[in-house]
Structures are given as C-alpha cells and as structure tokens.
Design goal:
two-stranded antiparallel sheet, two-stranded antiparallel ribbon, 5 helices, 124 residues, 63% helix, mainly alpha, 4 strands
C-alpha cells in the first residue's frame, strides 16, 4: 500500500508517517519510481509507535524498544528483558521530572499568593 492508504488506515497524517520513516521507525520498500510501499505489518507498527509516543517516549527510545514490543489487546508488552529495564528507567526519569514540575508549580503558587497578599488581590 502507498503512504496515503497507510494514512487512511491508521488515522496518522502522511507527514507524520514520513517523519517516522526519517526517524527509522518505519522502513517502507521503495519502488523504482521512488514511491514508498508499505506492508500490512506497518499498520500494526504505526499503532505501536502511537502508543509509545502517547506514553511519553521519544523516537530514539521507540526505535530501540519497538522490535521488542508485542500487542496485548489494547496495550503493548515488552518481550525482551533488557527493554523492560529501559522502560523502567524511562518511567523513573519521568517521575523525577514530574516531581520537579510539582515543586516548581508549588513555588509559583506561593509567589502568586504572596503577591496577592501585598496588592490586596489586584494584578500588579
């Protein structure tokens, strides 16, 4: 199938599909004319890519873990032990980022409230 058909079947824009190819996440065959030709497994690969992107992974990590992902209904499951460890490390990194953002949010709230107390609630 050509890129337009893959786009229709997956609901992903052709621009995104080209980006996935550029990032090494998809590897379509090329015809002599230069047209990309995708196979049925590419439909499932795009679905997996979208799930991993929604989980907050970047394309570099997706490129590493994608070959070791299996569909388990509506979710994915790692099939390689080392990939599961990589995903755990990424989750820990995300947790740390969340904690830092929550601390920054709390600090900003304190600053706003202190300013409101000084100005009687009026914008400065």
């Amino acid at each position: 199938m050509f890129i337009g058909e893959l786009s229709k079947r997956t609901g992903v824009s052709t621009r995104s599909l080209r980006y996935y190819e550029q990032q090494g996440l998809l590897r379509p065959q090329r015809r002599a004319s230069g047209y990309r030709e995708f196979d049925e497994p590419d439909v499932a690969a795009v679905r997996r890519i979208r799930i991993l992107l929604a989980a907050g992974l970047n394309t570099d990590l997706i490129r590493e873990v994608l070959p070791c992902m299996a569909d388990e209904g509506a979710i994915l499951a790692p099939t390689c032990e080392e990939m599961a460890q990589d995903l755990e490390h990424e989750r820990e990194r995300m947790s740390s980022s969340i904690e830092q953002l929550q601390a920054a949010h709390a600090m900003l709230s304190s600053i706003i409230h202190a300013g409101e107390a000084l100005t009687g609630g009026r914008a400065a």
